[in-house]
Amino acid sequence: MPFTANRDYKEAPRVVASAAGMYYRDQDGREILDGTAGLWCVPLGHSHPTIVKAVQEAIATLDYAPAFQMGHPAAFELAEQLIDYSGNKFGQVFYTNSGSESVDTAMKMVLAYHRARGEAQRTRFISRERGYHGVGFGGMSLGGLPANRKQFANLLGGVDYLPHTYNLEKNAYSRGIPEYGTHLAEELDRIVALHDVSTIAAVIVEPLSGSAGVILPPKGYLKRLRELCDKHGILLIFDEVITGFGRMATPFASDFFDVTPDLMTTAKGLTNGVVPMGAVFSKAMIYETLLDSPAGIEFFHGYTYSGHPLACAAGLASLKVFKEEKVLEHAQSMTTYWEDALHSLKGLPHVIDLRNVGLIGAIELASIPGKVGARAMAVYKQAFAEGVLIRTTGDIIALSPPLVLEKKHIDDLFGKLADILKKTV
Ligand code: PMP
């Protein structure tokens, strides 16, 4: 099983057998409140009838279409609608099948772009400590989570890391975006000077680090990164695989922070998790540069399943639901209640920080000495037993429910977690 301590599964694995709305059900029909929207990928709730119907119709109409040298109507329609959903800040999308593929695709796109401009020497990437950019060799090389890298040699060279912005001393219990740490963006200047700007292809960051345990960017940090990238003529990539599609009650995190990157990697909520799909959004100048390249450079890249008809149908239906059901407005209307409920856990045993933005929450627990992660895992197991699905990274509990949740779900989630924390040793 992926990212799992498989040795824990000598006995029967934990399973869910069906899902609807805010709930999973196990094989015995027991309801489990989904506090994580699957793996951050089900913003609209499970088995949404509009999406189910669209995918059923799609499979009966066109099961598969090659993506090379041809396409199909839904692929182009979805691309148009995605650009529209992005507020027309981007010019094109390139389809992939996952977040990892989106990241590797964006990296290759950046390299092709620079080569097309006659700057093939721009090959270095700058990412951030504690970043997570998927599991391909490209994304893994950019990533900064030790457990994800240390077993695997031969990472890509030419990557430097900005410092992370995690700081419990200064930022604990911030409500929303923390104050301290904006100056950490200035480290970009130091890294650029070290290698000479003419060698640098792009900076890539998650607007907020999700997999590292919800590390929020300090106020003004992303704006400053954008300014420094502009100053140096370096492309900026936001990895919006978890923050895209409404997680912050805006279409993308880039809208929330009012900072537009040159490329944006997405996946997950794009199809509401129903069919695997990712997309790289790129500014029109990247596409145009590649088309106009005097050397005739093409972006020679793609996947058998790029723009799969079922994924496109799920994507179109998801965008329809976002619009028709005013999902972002609903998410926005829940954020204060969410924040208050999360912060009501302050003072409970082991809790050392609470972080939130949009419909994202993190509960950081003090670790048992020498057993990092054990305490949060105990809470995870107990929560599952009591009918709530949460997620853990080390001793940080990450929460990211479907955006369609109501106050009663928030009460249930935090009520159960509070009871469990009171009994946790
Ligand atoms: N980038 C980020 C920021 C992610 O959070 C993830 C997955 N959680 C990925 C990339 C990889 O996505 P996938 O698992 O679909 O390959």
UniProtKB/TrEMBL annotation:
<keyword id="KW-0808">Transferase</keyword>
<keyword id="KW-0032">Aminotransferase</keyword>
<dbReference type="InterPro" id="IPR005814">
    <property type="entry name" value="Aminotrans_3"/>
</dbReference>
<dbReference type="InterPro" id="IPR015422">
    <property type="entry name" value="PyrdxlP-dep_Trfase_small"/>
</dbReference>
<dbReference type="InterPro" id="IPR049704">
    <property type="entry name" value="Aminotrans_3_PPA_site"/>
</dbReference>
<dbReference type="InterPro" id="IPR015421">
    <property type="entry name" value="PyrdxlP-dep_Trfase_major"/>
</dbReference>
<dbReference type="GO" id="GO:0008483">
    <property type="term" value="F:transaminase activity"/>
</dbReference>
<dbReference type="Pfam" id="PF00202">
    <property type="entry name" value="Aminotran_3"/>
</dbReference>
<comment type="similarity">
    <text>Belongs to the class-III pyridoxal-phosphate-dependent aminotransferase family.</text>
</comment>
<dbReference type="InterPro" id="IPR015424">
    <property type="entry name" value="PyrdxlP-dep_Trfase"/>
</dbReference>
<protein>
    <submittedName>
        <fullName>Aspartate aminotransferase family protein</fullName>
    </submittedName>
</protein>
<keyword id="KW-0663">Pyridoxal phosphate</keyword>
